[in-house]
Write a structure and sequence with these properties.
The chain is an all-alpha fold and 192 residues long. Helices cover 54% and strands 0% of the residues. The protein contains 12 helices and no strands. It is elongated.
Length: 192
């Protein structure tokens, strides 16, 4: 569209309930695309999300960046895109978890945000854990006991006296804790 009347188009899109399935940034009118972005007039799908990450945040989305896409978004908290994703985090996680990503390498801040977010279904948070390449430092920072047990069974927490003691106090000396304790050949430092 050459010289679009953007305000009128956006108002009409709102009235008609139009949401763009996808857009081609290369041939789209930049001002109109910006208005579509600002007003959330695009379908909530990975094609659009990845396109806006590339165009608004300036990060190329590829196999490497998909492993920590949530950290990239979190580093850009002031963006409309991150706010939109946070408002629809459950739907986003369902789509994201179906992507062919072998390991998630998000920052600990993002890992804790996902694991402690009750808006995300527990099964989706477990699926996220199943592909985590980095665990948590302090298991007590995860608020859900089921997820704590999942982290323990997958040995996705720092090997520390504090974590072992916390697990012992909360889960007893179970087979997962014994396996975790026996997984390292090092001396634990602690003071009682």
């Amino acid at each position: 569209i050459v010289n679009p009347m953007i305000d009128k188009l956006i108002a009409s899109f709102h009235v008609l309930g139009v949401k763009f399935k996808s857009t081609d940034y290369k041939i789209s009118n930049e001002e109109l695309l910006e208005a579509i972005y600002q007003n959330g007039l695009y379908e909530f799908n990975l094609v659009n999300i990845y396109m806006f990450i590339e165009k608004k945040i300036g990060v190329s989305v590829n196999a490497f960046t998909k492993k920590h896409i949530l950290s990239i978004l979190n580093d850009n908290q002031g963006t409309i895109l991150w706010a939109y994703i946070k408002d629809n985090i459950s739907d986003f996680m369902k789509m994201y978890l179906n992507e062919e990503v072998d390991t998630y390498t998000d920052s600990i801040e993002v890992v804790l945000y996902i694991l402690n977010n009750d808006n995300i279904e527990i099964e989706d948070r477990k699926r996220y854990i199943s592909k985590l390449g980095l665990g948590v430092f302090v298991i007590s920072e995860v608020t859900n006991q089921q997820l704590q047990e999942e982290l323990l069974s997958r040995k996705l927490m720092e090997y520390s006296f504090e974590n072992i003691l916390y697990c012992f106090e909360n889960f007893g000396l179970n087979k997962e804790l014994i396996a975790f304790i026996n997984s390292k050949q090092c001396t634990l430092n602690y003071v009682i």
